[in-house]
Amino acid sequence: MALSKIQxxxxxxxxxxxxxxxxxxxxxxxxxxxxxxxxxxxxxxxxNIFTTDFLHYKIFTRTRGDANHLLGIRLTTGGDSPADMACxxxxxxxxxxxxxxxxxxxxxxxxxxxxxxPDNHAFYGEADLFCEVTLMNARVGAVSGHTNISPARKRNGxxxxxxxxxxxxxxxxxxxxFTFWNATASDNPVATGLKIYPSGGNFAxxxxxxxxxxx
Length: 215
Description:
There is one protein chain. The strands form two sheets. Strands 1, 3, 6, 7, 9, 10, 11, 12 and 14 form a nine-stranded antiparallel β-sheet that branches. Strands 2, 4, 5, 8 and 13 form a five-stranded antiparallel β-sheet that branches. It is built from no helices and 14 strands. With 215 residues, the chain is an all-beta fold. The chain has one domain (27-214): Jelly Rolls (Sandwich), CATH 2.60.120. It starts with 28 loop residues before the first strand and ends with a strand.
């Protein structure tokens, strides 16, 4: 770059620069996917986002369905030709609602291959749902086992969501954990992306962003 672009203790950014080599100091998270929409969609596919450049991921969603629904998240394989990844999902959820401090708790013991939120009621159509998910070891999982536990392949994480649901027509806030589980170490599907969808109807509008934690 021209020396005139460099000032005493800073770089003059009122210009365009082409960097070569490695740029450091850019933080721990890199955006790998973003989608926003304002008309009905039945699902949002984030293909080819799980790569060897990242180990763990953060998912942010704000969605508005056009019918009562659960928010579904599935792992996919196959890159740009995605297919649902076969697995079992274990999950637990706890929280409360605005008009009551009583704790609400639910759990699923390996039901289906999708993570559903909320676990025991539904989001209202036309109500906004806000959700954050942390997904660890997304691409190939982690294999472990010890006394009384056979080795298995796991992709674990945690979540929180808030929104108005059909339970007492109230505003809820819930936290939870989950495991995408393949029962043996040799059961080794490579997850390449995500499918995010409503269990009924469509997403009328929303935004979804996914970030990878730099290794």
